Amino acid sequence: MKKFLLLILSLSLITGCNLSKTDMNALTEKELSDLKVTLVKEQPEYVAGAGANYSIEVLEKNGSYISATLYQNGKFAPGTPGFYAFKADDGWKIIFNGQETPLCSEVNALNFPKDMIAECWENNTTIKR
User: Fold this and answer.
1) Among 14, 42, 47, 75, which residue's Cβ finds the most Cβ atoms within 10 Å?
2) What are the residues whose beta carbons fall under 8 Å from the beta carbon of 43, sequence distance 6 or more?
């Protein structure tokens, strides 16, 4: 992944493109819309905590996997923890939201990248993946 990012950054310098981390983490409008529908359906209390004017800020994207948080009126929504999601063929799956460590059974079942989730929770213990 690091080599890929270096290649992209090198190409952007050579070609004069301005490629930011936000660009690399961007979801399409359809992906964002589908993710919002999934969040409201699966995590209504989580979305309610961010308020009516919330947006999704993708912090990291690795293929079909994302880590993200909710923003309120364009700013980080205090008290709203981040979440991890996976885009399957049939839509988004929210695998974790909170400030704790996600369950190993959830992240391992979806082969969530270890560079995104380095530790998980199992048998009342934090485990390095």
Assistant:
1) 47
2) 83, 94, 97
For residues 19 and 16, what is the distance between their CA atoms, to the nearest angstrom? 9
Q: Tens digits of per-residue pLDDT, 60-104?
A: 999 999 999 988 888 887 777 789 999 999 999 998 888 888 999
pLDDT at position 49, please?
77
Three-state SS at 70: strand
Query: In the chain, which residue ranges form alpha helices assigned H by DSSP?
Result: 2-15, 21-25, 29-42, 44-50, 104-109
The pTM of this model reads 0.72
